[in-house]
Amino acid sequence: MRSVQYLGTMAPLLRSLFGTGVKGQIAAISLRTWRTFTTGLRSTSPASPERDFPRMPHCEIQPEKYQGLSYDAIMRIRRENFSHFEMTYYSKPLLVHQGHMQWLWDVEGRRYLDFFGGIVTISVGHCHPVVTAVAQEQLGRLCHTTNIYLHPHIHQYIKQLSNLLPEPLKVVYLVNSGSEANDLALQLARSYTHNHHIITLRLCVQMFSEGYGVGASVEILQSKHYAPVTAQLGVNGTVQYPKGFLKEVSEIIRERGGVYISDEVQTGFGRLGSHYWGFQTHGVKPDIVTMAKGIGNGFPMGAVVTTPEIAASMSHATFNTFGGNSLACVIGSTVLEVIEAGGLMGRCEALGNHLLLELAKLRQEFPMVGDVRGKGLMVGVEMVKDKESQDPLPAKEIDEIWEDCREMGLLLGKGGMYEQTFRITPPMCITEEDIDFAVDVIRVAMQNHVERRSKAL
Ligand SMILES: Cc1ncc(COP(=O)(O)O)c(C=O)c1O
Question: What spacing in Å lies between the alpha carbon of 48 and ligand 1's midpoint?
Answer without folding.
Answer: 34
